[in-house]
Fold this sequence. Notes:
Keywords: Membrane, Transmembrane, Transmembrane helix. By secondary structure, the protein is an alpha+beta fold. It has two domains: 2-24 and 147-183; 30-137, CATH 2.40.50.110. 37% of the residues lie in helices and 26% in strands. The protein is built from four helices and six strands; from the N terminus they run H-E-E-E-E-H-E-E-H-H. It has helices at 2-27, 97-108, 147-169, 177-183, and strands spanning 30-45, 48-49, 61-70, 77-82, 114-119, 130-137. A hairpin with a 6-residue loop joins strand 3 (61-70) and strand 4. It starts with a helix and ends with a helix.
Amino acid sequence: MIKFIKRICVSFVVLLHLFLALVVDYSFPHYASVQITGGDVKRMDKDGIIDAKNPADGPVRDVYFIYAKDAQNDQKVMAYRNEDTAWGFPFYFKFNSADIQAMAQGFANSDNNVTIKYYGYRISMLNEFRNVISIKDSGTNTSWPIASYVLYFILFISLIIWIRKINKAFAPKVENLETKKEAL
């Protein structure tokens, strides 16, 4: 029974750390070197893009989209959402999506490669897009942050510490033989 409880505790700690690693990976910035091919504005509600199959049934908002192709591989195309994060999670406090869209349209008219800073995942089945944080010309200095790697390292160390604590808590207790003899 003790081994079963120990396995449950270790499984819980591992799953918790995997979840935290996914949160870090989702919410911290990533970079992509791309060539912008176009942009679009679509009206959306809580159910996604509004069209004939999905009529509006609540409050709606306009969402900008930026289309691009990979700078090294022309066959690899990507779509990015360009929406303000406002005061919500993740806390980028982004209020300039219209300005970023204007910059993207300017880059679409040229053949320059740009560096897109984004967060999130592109999940086609869930109609989920990466959200653009900023766009810069590839010729400018781009800093590649290490904060996410530092957090991955901290999570890994935390995982090791917690597993060691669990193993120590469930280790069989060895009594001192001298105290046992004195008790007899």
